[in-house]
Amino acid sequence: MKPELDNQSVHRYMRVYNYYKQLILSQQLAPGSRLPSIRRCAAELQMSRTTVETAYMVLAAEGYIVCNVLHLFLLPSFS
Question: Cα–chain-centroid distance for residue 74?
Fold first, then answer.
């Protein structure tokens, strides 16, 4: 499933952000699971790595994901 790319009124990074936020909130991504690497996600969505990285950073800033030492983006486990 790809984020809605046709909505030109929303910045591309926000489209990626909203896509993953919805997957997280709807629990389609389980706590503790890994998100695709920035490079892989960018290739799959046909967007720049900078766009995906910005979306991931916003998700991290809002606490939806965490970045570990190896720069792997994970969903936090709430227990």
Answer: 10
